[in-house]
Amino acid sequence: MLIGIDVGGTTTDAVLIGNGEVYSTAKVATEPQNLLISLLTALDAVSGEIPPERIKRVVFSTTVITNLIAEGKTDHVALLLIPGPGLNPASYNFPDSFFLKGAMDYRGREIQALDEAEVRENVSRIRDLGFLRAAVVSKFGQRNPDHEFRVAEILEEMHPECKVELGHRVSGKLNFPRRVASTMFASATKEKYRAFVAEIKKALAERDIKAPVYILKADGGTLPLEKSTEFPVETIFSGPAASTIGALALTPEGQTSVVVDIGGTTTDLALILSGKPLMASRGAKLDAFLTQVRAFAVRSIAVGGDSAVRVAEAGEGKRTITVGPDRAGPAYCMGGPEPTPTDALRVLGLIEIGDPGRAKEAVASIASRIAKTESKDEGKDEGKDAGKDEDRLGADIEAEYDYDTRAETETACRIVDIATEMIASAVREMFLEWEQEPAYRIWEVLQKKKERPENVVGVGGGARGLIAGVAEKLNARPLIPEHAEVGNAIGAAVARPTLTLNLRIDTEQKVYSVAEEGEILSLNTTDISNFNKMRSEDAEALAAKLLRERAERFGISEYAGEAEITHSEVFNVVKGWLTAGRLFDVNMQIPAGLIPEWKRREKA
Questions:
Q1: Rg (CA), the chain
Q2: SS3 of 212, please?
Q3: Measured CA distances, 207 to 43, 44, 68 (Å)
Q4: Does a structural domain hold residue 7?
Q5: pTM of the entire structure?
Q6: What single DSSP character describes residue 484?
Q7: CA separation for the pair 277, 270 (Å, rounded)
Q8: pLDDT at position 403
Q9: Residue 540, Cβ density class (10 Å: 0-12 exposed, 13-18 middle, ≥19 buried)
């Protein structure tokens, strides 16, 4: 049996899957200060009666990393950057940056040595400023990391308390600014992420679950939990990735859909094109920085079922209803402090959770405040009770505004309409970005006409109440699959592993490197006998061999056969009008998808 658990900011969702189908589900409150309790409660709810030896696999998805970054709770990191010649370093706009001399060329050859006196001076400054984390990134460091290693050695010598992250180990792709951002976030989140992993281990140990444990990455694939502590930044947007894979699992094969995951605090948006999630070609974006993290093309917006609903001044003495962006707590009908869209949905009978009396009280308070303004505009009751506190929940539902069931219903409809329009508007904006992605353009060409997906798939706790309104505004068909409320947990449970490999071969220098491994090796160690006659097919065969070996080290060798080449090119090295060698770049990946054990529904 398989377990999937999604640790969100509001709730922790869990699912137990047996024989390819959902066996049990659970949704419990997330307690950030006592995460162990939330994890144990979720585990017990779905698998308490199952012998632990029957659990064969556990997968987690989480918003831990994303929330740390969004809330500014990451560790401070000193950036020791070796940008080499070219762009002015000041234009990079990274915080806490210390620039060093030194440079490698695009083939990994040193063209400017490090100034070790300068390195030591900057390490002294970092130590004096109290930094306990540092990231060392050099341009073309993935082609030759010697400068990064040397700076790390000086840091260890002069500031041994400082924990160091090296850029070539975090990302092996070209684009220096994105590698800097990826390394910075990896360093800034590593310790807190390891604390999260420690809580997972405690929970599983207490329930004697010894099955392999994985974490869902931003690209919809899984990574062994132990390996994830080396690459915590890979788990950013793990939550949105889980909802995307969940929608993929819960809808018929090959469909094209917008995925709308409506949670308590935020709504996540993604796109599935003919059964394949759309990837972000430029990598995941965090704050104002693009990273090298492979991720789905997703967006999170600050509106959810528990977003605070308030009455705000709109100018000229008028008032308007606002939804979000903050969340004051649970819905009022669930014991929270303020009205929310969930209360409006309860009043309209679109959901059955919570206390209906409290839901009516919450919506009536909004109706009262709006009605007072409207009645004053009509010249009614002008000046009456002017000193009264109009913002205290339930205090103003009096004779001055004779509200009734119709008023409650109209106000609830207005709240729901505002929330659904906010989501629909974000989808429209997102399409302008999605349409610029190469994969989307290819999909449109294959369709032989310009069109947008017809389905809006709703997952998450707020889907049943809001998704129909969102779909109507987008002129699309709403789909709310069975178990949509725990779609993220299902996505985590049934996601298969992904793995990437970026191979670089330089036949003139007789070396090759796998960017993800951070090593430069001799071609003499391969089966290739004549480097000068090496062809693209030979380079791709070597990449496939190396990926199989890497997959075996990650414990996912059974998926290596599904790897595909995503990029392959060759350049001649010309000297004196003669070809002196060749440069090969081959990228391979095991793409995101579903484990074979999962049984798809034929109809959604």
A1: 27
A2: coil
A3: 8, 8, 28
A4: no
A5: 0.80
A6: G
A7: 8
A8: 47
A9: middle
Q: Count of alpha carbons within 13 Å of 43, Cβ hemisphere only? A: 24
Find the helix or strand (DSSP H, E) in which 585 lies: strand 578-590
Q: How far apart are CA 63 and CA 66, in angstroms?
A: 5
33 within a domain of the structure (yes/no): no
**What is the distance between the terminal CA atoms of the chain, rounded to a whole angstrom?**
24
Same domain for 414 and 509?
no
Predicted confidence (pLDDT) per residue in 215-265, tens digit: 999 888 888 888 888 777 888 888 889 989 999 988 888 888 899 988 887
> Is the residue at 212 inside a domain?
no
Domain region containing 320: 309-418
Number of compact structural domains in the chain:
3
Decide: residue 176, CB within 10 A, 0-12 exposed, 13-18 middle, 19+ buried.
buried
Residue 263 main-chain phi, psi, to 5 deg? -100, -165
Say if residues 531 and 510 touch (Cβ distance below 8 Å): yes
Q: Which tokens belong to 321?
A: 């209803």
pLDDT given at position 114: 93
- Burial of residue 217 (CB within 10 Å: 0-12, 13-18, 19+) is buried
DSSP string for residues in 242-295:
HHHHHHHHHS-TT--EEEEEE-SS-EEEEEEETTEEPB-TT--EETTEE-S---
Question: How far is it between the farthest Cα atoms of the chain?
Answer: 95
Between CA 138 and CA 88 the distance in angstroms is 14
Of 188, 221, 254, at which residue does a domain stop? 188
Task: Check if the beta carbon of residue 260 is closer than 8 Å to that of residue 245.
Answer: no
Give residues with Cβ within 8 angstroms of 124, minimum separation 6.
158
C-beta separation of 189 from 69 below 8 A: yes
Which parts of the chain sit beneath pLDDT 70? 71, 314-317, 372-404, 449, 518, 527-531, 600-604
Tokens found for residue 90: 């000041």
Amino acid identity, position 306: D
Our measurement of the distance from residue 264's CA atom to the centroid of its chain's CA atoms, rounded to an integer in Å, reads 17
3-state secondary structure of 578: strand
CB 240 within 8 A of CB 260: no
> Does any domain span residue 492?
no
Same domain (yes/no): 182, 83: yes
Distances (CA, A) of 333 to 355, 358, 462, 533: 5, 5, 14, 73
CA count, 13 A, side-chain hemisphere, 190: 22
Give the pair of three-digit tokens for residue 322: 């606002």
Residue 541, exposed/middle/buried by CB under 10 A (0-12, 13-18, 19+)?
A: middle
CA distance 310 to 340: 8
* pLDDT the model gives residue 386: 39
Question: Domain ends where: 161, 188, 215?
Answer: 188
Structure tokens at 139: 């341009």
H helices within 56-173, ranges in order?
A: 64-70, 116-128, 146-158, 167-170
